[in-house]
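User: I need a structural model of Major facilitator superfamily (MFS) profile domain-containing protein from Erythranthe guttata for a docking pre-check later this week. Nothing fancy, just the predicted structure tokens so I can convert them on my end. Input:
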Amino acid sequence: MEGGVTKPDKTEFTECWRTSWKKPYIMRLAFSAGIGGLLFGYDTGVISGALLYIRDDFKSVEKHTWLQETIVSTAVAGAIAGAAFGGWMNDKYGRKKSILLADVLFFIGAIIMAASVGPWMIILGRVFVGLGVGMASMTAPLYISEASPARIRGALVSTNGLLITGGQFLAYLINLAFTKAPGTWRWMLGVAAVPALVQFILMLSLPESPRWLYRHDKVKEARVILEKIYPENEVEEEMKALKSSVEAEKADEGSIGNGLFAKLKNIWGNDVVRRGLYAGITVQVAQQFVGINTVMYYSPTIVQQAGFASNKTALALSLITSGLNAVGSVVSMAFVDRFGRRRLMIISMFGIITCLVVLSVLFHEASSHAPRVSGVESVHFGGNATCQGFSRAPQPMSWNCMSCVSSSSQCAFCASGDSKYQPGACLAATDEIRAMCRGEKRTWYTKGCPSKFGFFTVMLLGMYIISYSPGMGTVPWIVNSEIYPLRYRGIGGGIAAVSNWVSNLIVSETFLTLTETLGSAGTFLLFAGFSTIGLIAIYFVVPETKGLQFEEVEKMLEKGFRPRLCCGSNSSSSTEKDDDNLK
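Assistant: Understood. Predicted structure tokens for Major facilitator superfamily (MFS) profile domain-containing protein:
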């Protein structure tokens, strides 16, 4: 029961199916814990669609960008605290109780959000859900790993990642299903209570992790669980391996020290762990600063900025990006052991940068060619209906749709009745005037403008996800499960995970403000710049860990990593390649 979780190959998936067929209890354990990943993914995806309707119900949210960002990002802030607290609770009270508590937090958060009477209540619910996300994100794969036979552990743990992306896809389906239902966003957010309740009930009948039980001197209980997981002739061997692993772990912890500060001091003075952290933190921060969660949290909003005004249309198109993300997780399983972690990330980053630059160009062209604002069209609805920003502008005749919607949250563009690409009206963004505009069968725009580039923009978003998901979407977590020596794996992975959540918080909290300040084109170009920096950092700091044992990784980091001057793998399990790439 020791070592990191390796990514499964095709043979392991076949063995997983064969073993699970003989021991269905194994799949019950993995599926029950994996619902935590589903909840994690659902919460990530659902807020993007729900936000469209929250803006319609609460005008303060519609008018204040910072409030929209806060609703989205408070869950991320809660996840940071949840991950930190979850680490302590996992060790103190066990994996099972941690998952049960995460379910309670999910359930409470979902109910609070569904019953919200104001934005503050939605934010409170998001904090509870975020705490649950943080705990689930680290506990679910840990429980699956420790309650799985070693030979199929990688395949079973990988299902957690698949359920995360599957949860995101499910969130977009649920969003689309409730677009016409009374309460819209309340149902979207409240549905998360159902799988949380299901997992809570399932987990009550399941045991604690055998490793945790053995670690806390509950040897008989650990043996009972192993007998349900392993064939009878393998139980004794696994008990011996478990004993050896736990004893080695306790000895290592004794040499490191029990206090957090003692461990951190030891890490900083250890060349191997410090270099591992350089690589682990680099890939985790780069994963967020390519801008992925701007797409996952704000995908419908981005689609609206591309020229699709309808909430339902924006959600339907966003479903494509979410589906591609789930497909990309499967692709990663097939290729990460064949091509290697480092190469897959570098290829992924080149694709991401290309897509971001082209997206920036498309948004710039869409803004430049946006329909003009017509004074005649604007006064058509009455002088009081015209947006004050347009009326008071020094040169109103130079305005186009983008000038109108970006000037103030109180301005909106009502497209021409003849063609949405012809000059339209810049009007005050009120419910009454919106009803007047739509009453004439016109389209109402608040976040974007009519654009002939809209279809290409959605295609580029899809290509961006295809580039991201198989590489930067999954590989950083694999690298962090392999890059640290065994005795430092927990604290090293925890530090890297916190850096991921903090970066996530920064990106999600600033995206809408950036689009208002820099425009969509400038924002995506900025992320392209961050991605370029990330690519350079990965090239120079992150070694290849494919096929290496923990001892080989430790040896490689002890000597130091030096990248090759041309393309190719930077490390290998063979001694000859190690000598070429280490210093």
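Before docking, keep this in mind: DSSP finds 26 helices and three strands in the chain.
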